[in-house]
Amino acid sequence: MSEETLEKLLVDELKDLYSAENQITKALPKLVKAATSPELKKAFESHLEETKGQIERLEKIFEILEKSPKGKTCNGMKGVLEEGSEVMEDYENPQVRDAALITAAQRVEHYEMAGYGGVRTYAELLGQTEIARLLQETLEEEKAADEKLNSISRRVNSEAMKAA
Ligand SMILES: [Fe+2]
Fold first, then answer.
1. For residue 53, how far is its CA from the centre of ligand 1 (angstroms)?
2. Ligand 1 mean position to 163 CA, how many Å?
3. What was the pLDDT predicted at 113?
4. Full-model pTM
5. Count of Cβ atoms closer than 10 Å to residue 150 Cβ
6. What is the 8 CA–ligand 1 centroid distance (Å)?
7. Structurally, what CATH architecture does the domain formed by 6-162 represent?
8. Is 26 in contact with 44 (CB distance < 8 Å)?
9. How far is Cα of residue 57 from the mean position of the Cα atoms in its chain?
């Protein structure tokens, strides 16, 4: 059994994030399809592109660490995404469904932000400055995506209010 070090924890958590990002890549096209607001569709589309870049960043990190990114399934993200697809089935009213999709997507962002904030700090403590920098970049993107969803939700939710 390998030692229980902060470095091992960093690798394990990164594997978890790698799994999460790959799951998100598969889920986002479904969100694009399910969304009605053109603004929301566009936000999901651009976050899909961003997510692909985040996966590349993680792959770069695993290269630096000389480890494989594979070997873990992020069950937390699996659950968050499952709930997201449940609301797609539960709500047919387009505006109300958009409101629900935004909340589901923000749960995804917050889950990722918690993970990235953690690994960024481990990397800093371990003196892995390049890795910490790459993780910080992704963290900023996730925060920005969340903020963008916040501002879209103000418009979408007021439309949902009018829904019969
Ligand atoms: Fe992400």
1. 9
2. 31
3. 98
4. 0.94
5. 12
6. 22
7. Up-down Bundle (1.20)
8. no
9. 14
